[in-house]
């Protein structure tokens, strides 16, 4: 049986694992991105981890990466990575592993994962929104991933939701990522805590320890400040998604990422705001869900699904 290595490179965490041709994750690990000063160091670490935990042979490697140039297969100017402006990620891993390496934009890879392994198997058109340090979008139309001229289609995180708003790491102002990305959510919470009376459970958390998960969990318990933050996040996300729906007539949208683990509050509130901006004849057709792959190694399966697409390896 063939086995494949899937790697997802995120701004906060890197997830990798070995998947067999039946789509079962037989080994996986997550490590902080900040542990590695370069992509070469990451390749060294993953090579050692795989050798220590998997005794079979790998057939090929799939990598989901941010800010990927589809022509050069290099990571270019990724705002949430500190490994340099141009990172030849495919070459680095090919030289380390001596295996075929297939690299895909991380959100597009996740969309492929939903298509091959998840709810998208029978759908011709759908979108996947990844919510983490950044905000990504993978869109499949007529069974094909929308990549754009440079492979950068789907940079939903840099859709402007507040003109002249916060500065984003990309250098622009008011990007969705500056409000709905992990750092943006925490920033909003800190701003609201400064002007609250002190009745919030969030006041008991040191500012340096505040996380989106803490904020969403407090909102589920009806904490007033946390609810304000979550409502602001869901409003901005819903506004951005409504533009996607109005432009492309997409009915099925799947959410994934850290904050989707906080229960139904994100989906429910985002859908409420989204429907206020969507064309009236589309409102009843929207299907906004948290993908089941979120709990089943979705990032790894997405990276491996890219192998399936580009090499035509048998994975199902």
Secondary-structure topology with pairs:
Layout: E1 3-9, E2 13-20, E3 25-32, H1 39-53, E4 60-65, E5 68-69, E6 74-76, E7 86-87, H2 89-97, E8 101-105, H3 106-117, E9 126-131, E10 135-141, E11 144-145, H4 177-180, H5 182-194, H6 212-220, H7 224-248, E12 252-257, H8 265-277, E13 287-290, H9 298-311
Parallel strand pairs: 1-4, 4-8, 9-12, 12-13
Antiparallel strand pairs: 1-2, 2-3, 5-6, 6-7, 9-10, 10-11
Helix pairs in contact: 1-2, 3-9, 5-7, 6-7, 7-8
Concise summary:
With 316 residues, the protein is α/β, with parallel strands linked by helices. Helix content is 36%, strand content 21%.
Helix and strand content put the structural class at alpha/beta
- Return the average pLDDT rounded to an integer: 93
**How is the main sheet built?**
5 strands, mixed
Low-confidence stretches: none
Question: How many domain modules?
Answer: 2
* Total count of strands: 13
Report how far apart the termini are.
13 Å
